[in-house]
Amino acid sequence: MKYPTIEDSIGKTPLVRLQRIGAQENAARGNVILGKLEGNNPAGSVKDRPALSMIQRAQERGDIKPGDTLIEATSGNTGIALAMAAAIKGYRMVLIMPEDLSIERAQTMKAFGAELILTPKSGGIEYSRDLAEQMQRDGKGRVLDQFSNADNPRIHFETTGPEIWADTKGQITHFVSAMGTTGTITGVSQFLKKKNQAIKIIGVQPNEGSRIPGIRKWPQAYLPKIYDPSHVDELVYVSQEDAEDMCRRLAREEGIFAGISAAGACWVAQEIAKRESNATVVFIVCDRGDRYLSTGVFPA
Fold first, then answer.
1. 3-state secondary structure of 48
2. Which of 62, 170, 254, 278 is the most exposed place for a label (fewest CB within 10 A)?
3. How far apart are the first and last CA of the chain?
4. Domains in the chain, ordered, with CATH?
């Protein structure tokens, strides 16, 4: 008998209906809001999918081999997922991240055996990306580059999109996703639009001045190469305050312990539902709330 391995548990995450938040208004308008629980992946986020995809496909192409050193700049979830995937596949993983990210993320990466390089808070993830490229030029390892690697959106086209389509029986009308590397929204959009051009793809970005882990509005020079604006019908901006408030509400009112960017996507899904009728709105619950405990977003 062949038993599954840990990588076989990535994907096929549940799609669940919100029962209390906005329930009265949504019922009156005939709307349903569904969250896809990507925190159920083994390393705890939607990034498990592209992390394994990027390593596995690079290995299949002969670009890398077990024992090689992989390098990646990360704001958190991708780093955790890559650390897990590298452990599964037998690679040394060096992760570069700004020093101000939550301690839970750093500790989790180390638990999977990754080595961390912390960069100045003032430089943001852009500085981390520049350093990763410099290390590759210096021959210190191979950068997978989630921001330009086609294997990132490809796995969402192959898995996340089809799962959403199947679980809604093709009834989805709106898809809402936070935008970081843009891999999730790009891949899912390509699949859903292939099935039904009328489905609206909504990207979530932070308001000016808001710092929401996992959601970015990139400077033009650092815009992910995998991003194509034609795959997104609308951008909706969320404030840090609204995202953090929804984060607490999801836990208290729905029993969904989610991260701040996932809550931002939920807030946008609710806003979309306020102007629609008979809509089936799906948002990505991209990770779990336990990696944000030290940020103070949840009451002590």
1. helix
2. 62
3. 47
4. 6-45+154-285 (3.40.50.1100), 47-143 (3.40.50.1100)
75 pLDDT more than 80: no
Check residue 211 and give its pLDDT: 86
For the annotated catalytic residues, the residue numbers are 47, 261
Dihedrals φ, ψ of 94, to 5°?
A: -110, 120
Q: Is the pLDDT of residue 125 over 90?
A: no
pLDDT tens readout for residues 191-231: 999 999 999 999 999 998 888 888 888 878 888 899 999 99
Residue 165's φ and ψ, nearest 5 degrees, are -60, -45
- Whether the pTM exceeds 0.90: the reply is yes
pLDDT at 43 over 90: yes
Q: Which residues are annotated as a binding site for pyridoxal 5'-phosphate?
A: 77, 180-184, 261
The DSSP annotation for 131-163 comes to HHHHHHHTTS-EE--TTT-THHHHHIIIIIHHH
> Pairing between strand 280-285 and 142-143?
unpaired
Distances (CA, A) of 143 to 55, 84, 125, 137: 11, 16, 15, 10
Contact status, residue 205 vs residue 179, Cβ threshold 8 Å: yes
